[in-house]
Amino acid sequence: MSEFYLYTYDQERAERWKNRFPEAIRKRVRIYAGIQDKDLTAEVQNSRVAVLPFRDGCSTRRTTVLSMMGLGVPIITLPPLEPPFLPGEGILPVQSVPEFLSAVQKFSDPDFYREQSLKARQLASQFSPGQIAEQYISVYNILRKQ
Asked: How wide is the angle at C-alpha 12 spanned by C-alphas 101 and 25, nearest 5°?
């Protein structure tokens, strides 16, 4: 049986969040509060999917999303998704607990998981330091010619 892990700095907030789930899920949730960054990275690399319920949706300003995707960890989050994020491209938006449970179930399919993990890595690679530097150089060269 799969377990769900909540990594947080705020134990009370995590408990409130956990208590929103149906009992079948709630009893499988483990909370880790105050975990060190180096330990968190190791844990994330072993994760199958990340649930990041940002109230205002998902955008590139969320470095947690990009970090997870860069490690090949697909995301389940709340809408809206801002470009370049698209549903089914390493990220699944959900609006309710039944949709969340359905998304979790989809990731139990190894082929679906591998496909989404690959798409997550590909999307995050657009934001690597090398890619960002290339974009800055390109803009600089365009402006210099004007």
From this structure: 20
